[in-house]
Amino acid sequence: MNQIRRPSIRRPFRNRLGWWWIALATTSPSCVAPIDRSEGDAGSATRVDHTAETTADPATTPLAFLDERAVRRGDLDAALLEYGGGVVLREHLLDLRLARLAASQGISLDDAMIAGELERLCDTLDPDPDRAVELLEAVRSRQGLGERRFAALLRRNALLRALVAGAVRPDEAAVERIHDVRHGPRRRIRMIANERLAEVEAALRDLAGGEAFDEIALRRSTDASRAAGGLVPPITRLDPTWPASLREAVFGLGIGEVSAPVLVEGSWVVALCLEEEPGDGTPLEAVRPELERLARMQQERVLMDRLVRELDAGLDPRVLDPRLREAWERTRR
């Protein structure tokens, strides 16, 4: 029986990148660099002087040349609006709303706040500064984040962080949760997930009949982990990227045991506990300052996400250009 493959029931790892999702969830068009033809063809009698082709009309100013033919902005505008206009318009409108909200609360940005966003961003990518810079450049290139949009992203994040700062109050439970994720014991499991309870029960019968768990997962699971025979990254007892019902089931098992079917966010799941990796023994108090810093950042992200959703839901511009209106409507679907 063919199954529809679903994303992993593990919650998205977006939190690692914090507020990059505002810009990174989409891509934008890249500019075409002008071609330097100053050397030209020695045999050509009709070389074009590119520097002389300037005009006061931006729509007719050459952006690039191919075979001595000018490519002008007017040639690209319609396609650029269709391709990335909706995304860029959304970002711009969010920035306008954020600026107005910040001004109403007497909040203004300074260089230190923007530099802090860049530092946080690099920290999330890699603890090695040189490696973080490499990864940052790769992400920017892949997502089409040029200087203008990247600078706007840093300002946007800084404003969001400043706007929610007064509501950030991480509690002891958050500190304990982060300590568990970073230093607590981890369990390695395989799992089978399917929206149909009958399929999961059939998987348990296959297992009782002697078939290997990974082979059953490959055939019956609809989770993204099926390709690895149901093997997923290690789970800690308090890791919030995994649903609580699954974590409770996993940590209630002995090594080598299989859980009963558990309903996890719309899917029925059975898990096989392979082994437990012990924690590293680090006492909570020994790393409390770092845990509290991370707890604060996590709560900031939750509140920033909520604020963006509220602002985004209220965006209802009157878009006059039909191509931009179509692109805008695609971002709202």
Write the layout of secondary structure elements.
Layout: H1 21-24, E1 62-66, E2 69-72, H2 73-104, H3 111-125, H4 129-143, H5 147-164, H6 172-183, E3 186-194, H7 197-208, H8 213-220, E4 235-236, H9 244-251, E5 262-264, E6 267-277, H10 288-313, H11 322-331
Antiparallel strand pairs: 1-2, 3-4, 3-6, 5-6
Helix pairs in contact: 2-5, 2-11, 3-4, 3-5, 5-10, 6-10, 7-8
Report on this structure.
The chain has 333 residues and is an alpha+beta fold. It has 11 helices and 6 strands. The chain has 2 domains: 186 residues, no CATH class; 93 residues, Roll (Chitinase A, domain 3). 48% of the residues lie in helices and 10% in strands. The strands form 2 sheets. The protein has a 4-stranded antiparallel beta sheet. A two-stranded antiparallel ribbon has the order 1-2. The longest helix is centred in the first third of the chain and has 32 residues. It is globular, with a radius of gyration of 26 Å. The N terminus is likely disordered.
User: What structural category do the secondary elements indicate?
Assistant: alpha+beta
- Report the radius of gyration as a whole number of Å: 26 Å
Strand content: 5-15%
- Return the string of H and E elements: HEEHHHHHEHHEHEEHH
How many helices in DSSP terms?
Answer: 11
